[in-house]
Structure formats: C-alpha cells, structure tokens
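Box 4.2: Ligand-aware structure prediction
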Amino acid sequence: MTVFSGSGWVPTMMRRSIDLLLPPVCPVCRGAVSGGNALCASCWPTMESITSPVCKVYGTPFAYDVGADIVSAQAIADPPPFGAARAAVRYGPAAKALVHGLKYQDRLEVADLMITAMHRAGAELLQQCQLIVPVPLHRWRLWWRRYNQSQILAAGLSARSGIPSDPFVLCRKRKTRQQVGLTANERQTNVRGAFLVPADQRIKISGRHVLLIDDVYTSGATAKAASRELLRAGAAGVDVLTFANVCQ
Ligand SMILES: [Zn+2]
C-alpha cells in the first residue's frame, strides 16, 4: 500500500535512473512498495505527523486543543529570535531513517517525501516569506558529504512554492563540532557565532522575510544562532521550517 508519497522535484532524473535498475522500495525498511517514493504500510504508522493544535511560536504539539494562537510555556520562558518554527513530523524511527538516509547514505530519493511533508506543514510560513535559505554546512563538511541535505530540501520547497531559495546568503564562518551527542547547553555554545551573512550577500535579505530550512529541529540552538545572524544582517523576519522536530 502506498500511503505517504512524494512527487515532483528532487533528483527526478536520478530517481528515474534508479527505478529502471531497481524495483521501488520503502525508504525506511527497504521492503517492496507499489510505487516510487512511498512508505510501506508497516512504516507509515511510525511516521507521526505534527498537526494542530501546536504552539504558535515553536510549533510543538499540544496534548489537547487549547484554542488558536496559544503559545507554549517554553515560548514564554525562552522566546526565540525567529517568529515561528514548524516541522512536518516528530523525530521518530521512520523520520530518523529518512533523515539519516538523506544525510549520510546518499539516498537522495527520500528527499521528495520530506519536501512534500514540509510543504504541507510550512504552508503558512511559505505564504509570508520572500526568500528560502538553507542552514549551511561548513565547506569542509560539504566537501566530505558532497551535498548539503538542507539545501536539497530548500531547493525542493522553492520549486514547489515558486519562492526563490539561495544557499549563498548564509555561511558557516567556523567549523563546529557535530551537534549529535551534545547537551542543549553544549549545542548552544557550539554554534554561537558560527554563522555569517557575508557583506556582499546582505542586499539579498535586507528588509525581507526569510524562511530558514533544516532537516531536524533538536534543541533549537542552530535555528536560533542562524536566525540571529540573518536578523543582524538586515532580514525583516525569520521563520524556521524543518522536516522533523524532536518535540522534547
Ligand atoms: Zn517500510
């Protein structure tokens, strides 16, 4: 059964080439599925979509409906520099498999699924943004991995929405440790001052509303540090859209 399917963009040509060689498989468990880019019936239930009611600021789900425009205690205690964050799914086993497949295993074909889910979850944010910007990798890490997974998601969202994306606006001015395995405080220290909008790029974001794209929202340290730099460099506002959120 095909239940969660992506269509359109990312490497369509590459996917077609793969489909010619291999029958379509579930991107999570690699079991057979009827069509390309779909989760199988066993893996689908483990993909937990984040749906309203959610915190207006952090996008984290509430256990019960508390009404529109309600913010979480976290948003009051720790107001972020960005306006709103949204994510498509909780970072459960299926989401983790997709993220790891895209990030570490060169499984570019899973990006379509992720982009479809993000396009839906980020519909409101996409409406009010004028530029889509991926969270960058440091150039050494980019060289090692060969592509930036967030840039692939940003380009796919741009193709779907018609809003331009630009991977050159924001860069990493220093190499940071991998965030995996760090505590929330360590993550914050690790990425503080790590991002830069180069002087010759500022005109692209000056007075514009930017949508920042990443694969996973964990502690928020990366999204907050990148948002601060975009705002410091002249963006009128920043929202954040990720595929998954750990929802701690
Ligand atoms: Zn599966």
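In the box above, the bound molecule is zinc ion. Residues 26, 28-29, 31, 39-40, 42-43 surround zinc ion (CB under 6 Å).
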